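Loading example: each entry is read as two labelled lines plus one structure line.
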Amino acid sequence: MKITRWILSISLLLFSSLLLAGQSIWTFTPVSGFPPTVSVAPGGTATIKYTMTNQSSQTHTLVMTPIAGITQVTTAGNCGNPFILTNHQSCTLTLTVDGNTLPGNITGGPQVCQQGSQLQCYQPNFADSLQITKVANNTAGITVSPSTLALTAYSQTPGYLTVTNTSTSITATNIVATLPPSWTDVSQNASQCVSVAPEESCQLIFTPGNTAYNPESVPIQGSNTTQTSAIISVNAPSTTTLSTSLSTLTLAASGNARQLSITNVGSAPAYDVTYNVSPDLPAGTTISPANCGTLDTSSTCVLTITPGSTASNTPSVLSIQAINALDVTTDLYVLTYGSIYQQGYVFSIDDTTAIDGSIGGTTAALTDNSSGIQWFNGSYTTIGASSLTDGASNTQQIVNTQGIGGYAASVCANYAVDSAGNSPCTTGTCYNNWYLPAICQLGSSSGSAGCASGTPNMLDNLSSLVNSCSGSACLSGAYWSSTEFVGSPNIEAWLQIFSSGGGSFQLTLPKSEEFMVRCTRNLTT
Amino acid sequence: MKINQNWQSQKRGYGKELLFLVSLLGSTSSALANLPSSSTQTMPATLLDSQNTSAWVVTLSGGPSWISGGETQTFYLAPEIEKTYTADKPTNTVGEGDLFLGVQKPLYNKLLGQLGFDFAATGNAGLSGDIWDDADPEFNNHNYDYDINHKAFALKGKLLLDMNLPVIPWISASAGIGFNQASHFTNNSTIFQALPNPDFSDNTTSSFTYTLAVGIQRIITKNWQAGVSYEFADWGKSELGNAEGQTMGSGLSLSHLYSNAVLLNITYLA
């Protein structure tokens, strides 16, 4: 019961807050060409017109409260005195301002009341109220619109103030705004306002610099005009959001240039979009253009990164910055054979991938994955893993056929290492999808397996791990490949023997023998 | 001048209520028959001692009173000028003071009766709300507030039960004439375009009023007692005077305004 009363109370509160909006029963809409803001000199006249509309469903008999110096025109086509407006009916309230009888300036009104009392009276909204300036004979009145102007720092986007000469007879000259002295980087173009004919307008144009300023009332006046003012501010730009097309971009040393896109995905322009790289890019690698300037909403700036011949030792972090956005970063790597990347030694590079992405390639694990394990899972079977170059498909076939067990291909299929070097993965990025390399990924065309010349392989491209090498990373001894020997595919598979000083060779042996395993993996983005 | 005219007309209207009060007083003449002839007579030490004795009683009460009220009203102030006055109905806290002068008389067994006249007065209770021009919520363009205060002169009866306990419970009722002054009406525009309306004028209305109360009191000394009570009161009718230019209807009016008060009281028995 109490809850119901609370809900009812809250509903009533919401309803009543909607009601608070309010609106006039009868409204005043200025008629174009007859604005309520005028200046009148002695001897001059001005005409002001409002469209009066009864917004109520009830009929109202209305009377304008007399104003000294202003006469209501009640001829045909105009509102009478009094005037009757039925449901949503309108008429034109026409007022003539007489400069001779006008006692002074008039601000506010006109007031229109229900006939007979002051019990129901309305006036125009503030912006549409009478603003009548009585000026000397040789002075032109001026008005400015809008009354406030907000510029945006860095945007270089100009702001406009329209100044109207409200005099009916005097040409206004040299109208200019006097900006605060400290606003040194805000420029004004007042060339349109050197001479403004009676009842004509001109524009003052303001261009912001890179400094924000609080709102200030800025006086505007000509040589022979009244003074008016506008509130001008230079606001700091709204924040926006930048996005990069890649979080990591890998390139091949001396390889193809690649592209990185910076997109403004926020709702405001991004100003002064620049970048820096830390640590420095390897020698010879360049980025263009030098900066992206202003990036409009949904616009993209494409950076082209051209690799030099020197590879990266560590990633170079490209940090993209803007005045009004948080930094975004992309890690850049320039790789060559032997580079350590994604927890492996790069021995194959594919630089034919699309230029808006990273290179492809293959790595060998940083250390041996087994010091001695048999090829088969306990029984001789022809699997059909006969590819000389595609270790991934060979491994898939072997594992599918032989199932769970401890053997060379399953060691690689089950291997996973994270970006911190933990195996199995515990943190960071996990690298899996390792496989037992095909014989031509291990050794070169110099061996007996019949590898095609030019096939990227560990013997040729990781020679520093084969020759004069010490430590656990070295390739030394007999390593199983995933390629079955076509001469007796059920019994034998290919081996690569790594030997320092050019003694490496290939041979086949029964799958039951135990040899070392070094897994390989294709690079991922 | 206008206020005086209203008062005159309302005074005539409540003549019957005054006659009723006088007749009530007459019907209690038997209770008054046993009044002590002078205040110098020897007084009883306690209420129990006083069961066979009459005594003069003066009780002064005071405390906070809570008023919530107001009614949404729609009426024409002049031809083509119809307005709705909504009521916010907030709860006001005002001060209330009360003076009772009467006699006490044993009635039956442990039951004591008091009868006398009561004078009450309160502070200003504020009422407020919105004004809808054309009686249409779309034109909710003003708000208003005004004050009401209340003075009353009533005949009051009180029944006390003396069980020889630390405190004496009692109930009371009163009926009489109230004077409700509605004043300080102001209205404000809530949008720039709407101009403020002339305000309703101050006006005092006399009206039938009654109270119902329940309380306890404790004997302090032979002559003094103190206690606390809850009192419900109907202030009766109140009405503001016409606004300048108003040719139809009257000011905002309320047929009843109810208050709930918690009063501390001190009683002197003589």
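Residues 1-51 of chain B have pLDDT under 50 and may be disordered.
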